[in-house]
Amino acid sequence: MSTSITNPDNYTLRDTLLISQLLHINKIATIEDLEKTDPKLITKILDEWKNHISTRLEEKIIKINTLNQLKDLYKRFLAKYGVGDTESLANVVYFKRIEELKKVIEEKKIEFKTVLNQEKEKEVEE
Predict the structure, then answer these.
(1) What tens digit of pLDDT does each residue of 10-36 get?
(2) Would residue 112 count as lying in a domain?
(3) Sign of the torsion formed by the C-alpha atoms of 71, 74, 76 and 79
């Protein structure tokens, strides 16, 4: 896996969903919108992304600091998910994230049942 900070494979679905939502709520719908966005707003968006509780929970450091880095990452996200704008990106990633969470829940259910059965077997042995 490339360690480039603009490689979309280095970001989780949660990371991708969050940055796409931050762009969306700030009315940045396309690459053209991103290119003409006030640098102060870009800084604000990047700060929100880096300091969001979900990013901090992962103990991840996001190193995107400039408009050019964000533009490159954004273009790569659009290409990776086969979409052309921020809203479509957010929607595609949202549904992928839901599927990811469903899988985790199912895995945890199986794990719980396994532990529960082991405890029951111990009780029977005693």
Answers:
(1) 999 999 999 999 999 999 999 999 999
(2) no
(3) negative
Angle at the Cα of 21 (from 59 to 28), degrees rounded to 5? 125
Query: Which residues constitute the domain of residue 63?
Result: 8-99
Quick one: what percent of the chain has pLDDT higher than 70?
Answer: 97
Alpha carbon distance 53, 40 (integer Å): 22
Instruction: Give the burial class of 116: count Cβ atoms within 10 A of its Cβ; 0-12 exposed, 13-18 middle, 19 or more buried.
Output: exposed
Instruction: Indicate whether 27 belongs to any domain.
Output: yes
Going by C-alpha positions, the residue among 30, 111, 122 that lies closest to residue 74 is: 30
Instruction: Please state the domain count of the chain.
Output: 1
- Cα end-to-end span (Å), the chain: 50
